[in-house]
Amino acid sequence: MEKEQLTINREYITLGQFLKMTDIISSGGMAKAYLQMMPVLLNGEEERRRGKKLYPGDEIVVSNVGTFVIVQDHVSD
Q1: What dihedral do alpha carbons 28, 20, 57, 14 form, nearest 10°?
Q2: Which of 75, 27, 77, 73 is nearest to 50 (CA)?
Q3: Distance between CA atoms of 52 and 17, rounded to whole angstroms?
Q4: What domain range is 58 assigned to?
Q5: In this predicted model, what pLDDT tens digit does every residue of 34-56 receive, in sequence order?
Q6: Is 77 within the bounds of a domain?
Q7: Distance separating the N- and C-terminal Cα atoms of the chain
Q8: Domain assignment of residue 41, yes or no
Q9: N or C end of the chain: which has fewer CB within 10 A?
């Protein structure tokens, strides 16, 4: 299965932000309900906290959607 990359330009994003950025949910308010209904794996462990911090290198598997890897956007000074 191919992994889709999600590039971030800060130290981390939250799981709720990830779900919105990948268009899995349409608003941040849907994150808690979505995570209660649908299994999401963070680095192989089930995660249900919308505020969980995701860092570059983290792998997220969303059932019926796909596998994503967080990557850092390296901004040159």
Answers
A1: -10
A2: 27
A3: 10
A4: 3-72
A5: 999 998 999 999 999 999 999 99
A6: no
A7: 35
A8: yes
A9: C
Q: Which residue has 């191919």 as its token pair?
A: 2
How far apart are alpha carbons 47 and 21 in whole angstroms?
17
Handedness of CA 72, 31, 43, 2 (dihedral sign): negative
Residue 25 lies in a domain: yes
Residue 28: DSSP 8-state: G
This prediction's pTM: 0.90
User: Domain total for the chain?
Assistant: 1
Q: How far apart are CA 22 and CA 26, in angstroms?
A: 9
pLDDT digits (tens, 9 = 90+) for 3-38: 999 999 999 999 999 999 999 999 989 999 999 999
| CATH at residue 61 | 3.10.290.10
